[in-house]
Amino acid sequence: MRSALIGRPTVRVDTGSAHGPTPQPGRVIERVDCRGRELDVVWDDGLVLHTALRRSGTWHLYRMGERWRRPQRQVGVMLENDDWVAVCFNAADVETFRAGAERRHPASGPVGPDVTDPSADLSAAVMTLAGRVAPHTRVRDALLDPHVMRGVGNVFAAEALWENRVSPWARVGDMARSDLVMLVKSTARLVREHLAAAAPRSLGYAPLGLSVYARNGQDCHRCAEVIEVRRVRADGRLLYWCPGCQTRFDHRLLDDTPPAGARPAEYLIDVPRPSGGLSI
User: How far apart are CA 55 and CA 208, in angstroms?
Assistant: First the structure.
């Protein structure tokens, strides 16, 4: 995208229903910045287009007239110059703002440490959880936030909560700093152990087995209670937990997570890959 867009006037800009000012045709793109699953396009007048891709979003780059590989209904952003079309499909969030006003949108701030990197500074994730995340935020949601730490995914967020007996409805503000330290360390260790075991083989699955994720309807290894699953409305992900032993800091909101089916779900796509193996 940098090679195709930077230094060239934008002929057409379509940001759909994005919040904020509209980028004007004729302005020149000066930067394309990528931070994990977030990508910013910056024009010469200081306007910034921010896209948060999360789980399903992706940017494609096509030559003018080339056939798109995804349908029009999935388009959230489209940028055109004389030779190229950059298209963002299924972005979770799209927003525009003026440079210097980054604090006005919720995605501001640096990304957290990558837990797949053995040299990552995990204390930074603990500091973010203890000092920057709103106290009412669910710990599960915080573990999946790239501003806290990266490389976790839904699988190992569930596994780390189970290992620490923490309810998926626990709130960050209810947990002591020592609990946050243990949770962050457990999460990083689980991710790294599974990646190390998968390294000699094809990546994309959890070779060491899982304790709670995708085991709905089965007995818990620890307390023999039946593992349950619900779908979270906010992000559409499946939430697996053991109601028998994951009771610490439980603030369950029953109307927020309607029951999902009883059939175990595939977890392959949520297992993180090593640094450098991901693309957007």
Answer: 24
